[in-house]
Amino acid sequence: MENLAERPNGQLGPKYGVDAPGFVASLGAAGAAAAVAAARWRGARRGRTGLALAGAALLGQTGIYLHTTLRGKLNAWERELDGAGLRGDEQLLDLGCGRGAVLITAAKRLPTGRAVGVDLWVGKDQSGNRPGTTLANARAAGVADRVAVHTADITELPFPDASFDVVTSALVIHNIPVPALRHRALDEAVRVLRPGGQLLIADFWPMAADYARHLGRGTLHPLGPGYWYGGPWLAVRMLRMVKK
């Protein structure tokens, strides 16, 4: 989990930014605008009430979204990785690692293993999304010795077959606009897994269901309100699969 307390060496703990910052900024701005319009409304009471309710709903969704992106997703991944039965010496790959929230949470559980992250570092997907930021977060968390990052497309991973014991991904694959390429990313994830390795993919519930259908195996479970991006219509599910 993110630790914002000052470390003994004077460096602050990791800061993971905000997912899709443009979207949540627009959501919050729309809510604030509706609330202001309601306060200034001079027409029928019904119109004022409608604007006030719309503003409250949008601001409420913004609050839920921010809780998820700043804390809820971290709590969920803590639970999922604790339940993965890791020995601590695994080689783990995180697809679309961003600023390292999942990557570093995993690395803390791999004292003799290694956590590798790949990303294309797109700023619209996460604020301040740069490899240097991810490595700085790893240093702040005390796991820099077991973390590496690469610039790579998850539909064409630059790793040999059966390279990793665990592959993780959080809210990444749905960003690929073409279904066939989303499925290729899944196939690549399975390709680099060793037999008996675990695949853990968190994504919006319709996407997660599609991934399970494509793979033809694995289990799905909801991650709860703490992983809602504004409401249950953008709830996240976890796909867990073990490679045969």
UniProtKB/TrEMBL annotation:
One of the GO biological process terms: methylation
UniProt KW Membrane keyword: yes
GO molecular function, one term: S-adenosylmethionine-dependent methyltransferase activity
Gene3D superfamilies per UniProt: Vaccinia Virus protein VP39
Parts of the chain that traverse the membrane: 20-39
InterPro entries reported for this sequence: Methyltransf_11, SAM-dependent_MTases_sf
Pfam families reported in the protein's UniProt record: Methyltransf_11
Keyword line: Membrane, Methyltransferase, Transferase, Transmembrane, Transmembrane helix
Methyltransferase type domain: residues covered: 93-201
Protein name, per record: Methyltransferase family protein
Species annotation: Kitasatospora viridis
Organism phylogeny: Bacteria, Bacillati, Actinomycetota, Actinomycetes, Kitasatosporales
